[in-house]
């Protein structure tokens, strides 16, 4: 089975929490802040990033997404549920985007003089029985698709980047949307998200050397001008 999925439909407000069978309302992720925020690059979204994805897990056991895979926002990858157990259970990770924040929104003890960006992703359990829930270990924003940023958990009750509590256990099909804060040097624009964990000596699992990368779709090529008949 392919290790890629087509882009999922995404939602700016509603998250389906299969773990508790409830619906949680999330604030719409806002546009870029105007204070201490870096100017977004042409490839960074300037519209609100969806905070969750409406996904359906595949039937059967999917193949692990190999290192070096490139995806676009809303596509899913099958990666270790626990980065430190790279050959163990897989989970489905759907990254919906990264958006710029503002230093004024967060404690200086968290940003330490850097600029914050918010990485939004939805995690889905693939195990057929209740097992420890997947984690976001190994995910980071990146400006070049290889180098990770410093990544920290957002403060409690921070509406622009909501890290929903991870249940102790989750069963197949349970999904939860979450967010991590990437902190970069001023002026740096991380317009990609990477999975870069390397916890084994197995080269086929060396995501640090060849991360899985999410980014905006490449722009369509410009149309060639139509030649004007002469004579």
TrEMBL record:
Residues 133-160, 212-231 are annotated as: Disordered. Residues 137-150 have a biased composition (Polar residues). This is Uncharacterized protein. It comes from Williamsia sterculiae.
